[in-house]
Each structure stands twice: as structure tokens, then as C-alpha cells.
């Protein structure tokens, strides 16, 4: 068989290669583009048909979810490179069919190359799919970013709300305590107020001090301040409320001065004279007794501190003796 006749009869016509000069321009349109969305810091592979416009600065404009987005073109590639390579391989194989042995070898080599190329393409496709799975869609990435921002804002608002709630709870508790105390004092004293339109004095002088001008937040506070004006510090520390009791070692306060204090309280808060004894017994006596106990306790603590301060000035304690002294003071 004459192989040269077959070869020459079926050989494909070759076309001369086009050579471009610097004055000529060629527009190469790629089928696929790797785009970088600067706004969302994400990457996406887009087909030529999805891109609406190209500009001279290397940016492409495309529409995603009815929104026009602009992205930087990182890489452009054609999807028909493999086909052109396969055509060139088939041409080479067809040209070498004049030699049967070389033809078989070339066909075997082509099959091997195709298998290798298929394996590489499969691996590239899998890598692309993985990268695409890792690379979020621009619209989705914007949504996720907004969702994270809203979560951060929500957490901050919750922390502010909790902090404000704690402050409001403490403030409410203080207001409740003050209001409850004022309500208790008001209820306690309203029961004993004058209802017969008694004419009360406008002033009550003790020396050159008008006791009715003493300011007090409650009747108990007014009574304590009046006691400090009428009685001396020694009397408040060493004595008890009248009347005098024989089984107690402490003497009682001066009864005449104590009556002045009671008159000031009755006139200041307009308490009925017929109900004042019950008011003193049920409400006022306990407050005045606690006041005298606090005065004695305050003096005892002050005396102890003065004694310790004097001892430390005369005999400064060492480091191992200082701790027991502090413990005893506390």
C-alpha cells in the first residue's frame, strides 16, 4: 500500500500565521475572569456573558441580585485551551500516520497525555470548587457582614441595658427605702397630729436659739439635733432618758430640759397635746434611746482610738506586734 498517496491526499491545508506589528492592535476576548470585589474583600470567577462592561483601568462591572457591582480583574483565561491542544495533538498524530509503528506510539502517548490532562483538570476543578465554596458570594458576604455587625450592636445594647438596669434597680431601691421611711414616719406621726385647730407657738427659745428653726429631715432627726442643742456632750454620753430609775446606775437627763425638747417636737410637728404621751411612748422614745446608745458607743470608740494612738506614739510597735493591735481595734 502506498502510504504517501493517502497522506498527501488527506493532509489539512495550513494557513499562514498572522504576525502583528506594534502599530496594530488585537482585541483578545477571554471567556472567564477572576474578579476581586474590593468592597467585600471577596473573589469570584465570572463568565464573559455575566459582565456588563469593561473599562480601561482593568475593572469589570456586573449585576448581582439586581445590584451593579464593580470588581478588579485579576486574571483572564479561555476555556477552549484544552480543545486547541487536543486539535494540535490530533493533527500531529494524523501527520505521522505514514509510519504505523510511530502512529501507535503517538496514539499511546496522546492517550497518556489526555489521561494526565484529565487528572490535572479534575484536580483543578476540585480546587476551584473548594475555593469557590470558601469564597463567599459578594451579596452573601455583605449580608453576613451586616449580620455580624448587628450581632455586635445587639450585644452592646444588651450590656448597656443590663448596666442601666442594675443602676436603675439600685436607684429604685434607694428611692423605695427613702419613700418607705418617709411614709412610715408620716403614717406614724399623722395618727397623733392635732385635729382641733390648736394654736401653736411661733417660736421656742432656748437661750438665744429658736429651737423651732432647727432643720430636720424627719421628726427623729429633728429630735436628735434638738437634744444636741439642749444637752451637753457629757450629758448625752453619761445619762439616760427620764424618769430616773433606782435599779439603773446611770442618772437620767434633766427633766426640765427634756420637757423643752418634747415641747419643741410637739410644736414643730403639731401633735395633739392629749396624744403626745402615746406618741412619745409608741414612736419617739425608742428613737431617743437609740440616739443616746449611739453617742456612748461613739465616745467609746473614740477613746479606744485615742488610747491606741497614744501608745503607738510613745512605744512604736514592731511589725509582728502591729497586727494584733489592729485586730483588737476592729
TrEMBL record:
Compositionally biased spans, kind Basic residues: 102-117
Region annotated Disordered, chain positions: 79-136
Acidic residues bias: start-end ranges: 79-94
Bias-annotated ranges (Polar residues): 121-136
The protein's name in its UniProt record: Uncharacterized protein
Amino acid at each position: 500500500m502506498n502510504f504517501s498517496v493517502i497522506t498527501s491526499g488527506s493532509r489539512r491545508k495550513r494557513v499562514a500565521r498572522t504576525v502583528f506589528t506594534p502599530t496594530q492592535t488585537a482585541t483578545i476576548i477571554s471567556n472567564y475572569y477572576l474578579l476581586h470585589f474590593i468592597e467585600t474583600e471577596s473573589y469570584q470567577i465570572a463568565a464573559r456573558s455575566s459582565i456588563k462592561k469593561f473599562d480601561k483601568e482593568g475593572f469589570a462591572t456586573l449585576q448581582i441580585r439586581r445590584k451593579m457591582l464593580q470588581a478588579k480583574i485579576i486574571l483572564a483565561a479561555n476555556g477552549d485551551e484544552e480543545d486547541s491542544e487536543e486539535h494540535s495533538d490530533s493533527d500531529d498524530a494524523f501527520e505521522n500516520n505514514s509510519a504505523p509503528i510511530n502512529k501507535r506510539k503517538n496514539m499511546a502517548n496522546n492517550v497518556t497525555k489526555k489521561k494526565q490532562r484529565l487528572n490535572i483538570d479534575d484536580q483543578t476543578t476540585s480546587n476551584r470548587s473548594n475555593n469557590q465554596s470558601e469564597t463567599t458570594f459578594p451579596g452573601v458576604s455583605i449580608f453576613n457582614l451586616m449580620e455580624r455587625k448587628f450581632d455586635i450592636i445587639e450585644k452592646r445594647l444588651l450590656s448597656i441595658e443590663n448596666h442601666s438596669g442594675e443602676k436603675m434597680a439600685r436607684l429604685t431601691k434607694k428611692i423605695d427605702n427613702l419613700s418607705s421611711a418617709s411614709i412610715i414616719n408620716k403614717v406614724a406621726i399623722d395618727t397623733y397630729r392635732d385635729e382641733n385647730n390648736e394654736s401653736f407657738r411661733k417660736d421656742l427659745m432656748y437661750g438665744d436659739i429658736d429651737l423651732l428653726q432647727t432643720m430636720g429631715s424627719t421628726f427623729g432627726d429633728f429630735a436628735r439635733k434638738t437634744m444636741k442643742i439642749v444637752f451637753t456632750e457629757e450629758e448625752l454620753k453619761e445619762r439616760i432618758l427620764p424618769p430616773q430609775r433606782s435599779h439603773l446606775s446611770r442618772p437620767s437627763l434633766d427633766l426640765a430640759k427634756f420637757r423643752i425638747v418634747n415641747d419643741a417636737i410637739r410644736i414643730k410637728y403639731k401633735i395633739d397635746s392629749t396624744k403626745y404621751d402615746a406618741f412619745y411612748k409608741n414612736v419617739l422614745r425608742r428613737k431617743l434611746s437609740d440616739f443616746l446608745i449611739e453617742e456612748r458607743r461613739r465616745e467609746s470608740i473614740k477613746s479606744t482610738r485615742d488610747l491606741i494612738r497614744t501608745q503607738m506614739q510613745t512605744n512604736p510597735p514592731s511589725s509582728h506586734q502591729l497586727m494584733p493591735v489592729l485586730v483588737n481595734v476592729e
